[in-house]
Amino acid sequence: EVQLVESGGGLVKPGGSLRLSCAASGFTFSNYSMTWVRLAPGKGLEWVSSISSVSVYIYYADSVESRFTISRDNAENSLYLRMDNLRVEDTAVYYCARVPTRELAPPTAQFDSWGQGTLVTVSS
Amino acid sequence: DIQMTQSPSSLSASVGDRVTITCRASQGIGIHLNWYQQKPGKAPRLLIYISSSLQSGVPSRFSGSVSGTDFTLTISNLQPEDFATYYCQQTYTIPVTFGGGTTVE
Is the peptide bond before B95 cis (omega within 30 degrees of 0)? Predict the structure, then answer.
């Protein structure tokens, strides 16, 4: 059974940093691209960033470009999102999800398995 | 960026109803359109991918179709567990974009 478990969320002040983690199990992690998606309070789903199976392709939404860094450790079956210079508008539940392709040259594929999410709150 | 316009933003329905949700892309995306269901406090769930392919384990009352840049999710015979928010998503190009969501209540 595919399992994705996010961790690392919490309360942080504007300008602060957090590192989210996503532990994967139940599939061969190194064969899949991965992605982060967020859901802000009262809003809809927003794609944040994606990374291909061996990190050749990496993409970011304009809203997080230069502030967030996606990475992965295939030996540890883990996905990460380093978030710097956080803003109030980054407050959201952050989900990691699996993309059933090795590469991410557009058009990319659907997000077929999701974690339960971790809450990030940016507030003074 | 490709804008995905979903309608309606909410709808009221009853068990047994046939429900239709539409999503329009601001430019051509071929068939690269996916549908997700999300319940409060839960992770999104993939329902339909590449416009009309049913994800494994999803009941056959869910179906998807496309006509040009207009995409439709249909739920036939609405069940109690189907009351949720539904999102369309285009994966034709980066950035990946979602529709604004449709809440079925």
Answer: yes
Provide the shortest C-alpha distance from residue A111 to chain B (in Å). Answer: 7
**B60 near B8, Cβ under 8 Å?**
no
Summarize pLDDT for B52-90 with one digit per residue, the tens: 999 999 999 999 999 988 999 999 999 999 999 999 999
- What are the chain A neighbours of B94 within 8 Å (beta carbons)? 50, 59, 106, 108
Selected residue of B3, B36, B91 to mutate for chain A interface (largest A Cβ count, 10 A): B91
Q: What is the pLDDT of residues B1-48, one digit of tens each?
A: 999 999 999 999 999 999 999 999 999 999 999 999 999 999 999 999
The two most distant CA atoms of chain A are separated, in Å, by: 41
Separation of alpha carbons A95 and B38, rounded Å: 12
**Distance of alpha carbon B44 from alpha carbon B36, whole angstroms:** 6
Amino acid symbol at A57: Y
Which DSSP letter does residue A85 get?
S
Please name the residues in contact with B81: beta carbons below 8 A apart, sequence gap of 6 or more: none
Residues 15-34 of A with CB under 8 A from B: none
User: DSSP E strands: which ranges in A27-89?
Assistant: 33-39, 45-51, 58-60, 68-73, 78-83
